Amino acid sequence: MLFDLILGRELARWRRVGRRPVLWWRDDDARAPTPQLERLIALSIRHRRPLTVAAIPDGDLPALAVLTATAPAVALAVHGFRHRNRAPLGDPSGEVIDGDDVDDVAAQVAAASARFAAAGAATPLFVPPWNNIHPTLLAALPAGGVEVLSGFDGPRRRETSGLRRLDAHLDVMRWGEAPRFRGRTRFLGRLRRQLAERRRHGRWSEPIGLLTHHLDHDPGAWRFLDQFLAQPAFDWRDWRGALEA
Ligand SMILES: [Zn+2]
Q1: pTM given for the model
Q2: Residues 54, 31 contacting (CB under 8 angstroms)
């Protein structure tokens, strides 16, 4: 099958030296329990793969906290403030922009974290919307009580401005006018490159992050996700376990 065709040789190289690639799973954009989120959590439970759900603080956090507490390995992370794009036309989407005041942004970070704590789901993990790590946001996060930052395929350094860093690398979706499944070949090919890079540099335990967006999945994305999570080749960790890998 395609999985073995694309990844077989690379995974055999890992096995030969007694290594299993460390994977972790981040899903973005939850605001409230939905059938899609329940479907995602069901996948996490069925395949026993830990899942981190990045939730937007203006949503129904108490309901999300209750729902995720029903699953053994599902955690919440803070996904920005309101997930509103404030970037000027033509710039990458982002919630924090040039001219924003660091103290104001730190106050927003603290308020967002406080909402999670009030819902019984305190977390030190922050996921900026659109993975946009604006320098002002970066400067504000520690003051806002954040300890771990998750973007998309950023610098290999595991620390940024005093924050631990745990990125996602494999986006199951392709983003255009209409989001759709990236495709098996593209997804698995990217995973192979991520694995080969870690192997060549001896970075065996550097986590690779799977990224999903439950509200946007088409049938192809759901089907693939189910198959991919079933693969036994990987050492799946929750975000804390991935940081410690
Ligand atoms: Zn988002």
Answers
A1: 0.96
A2: no
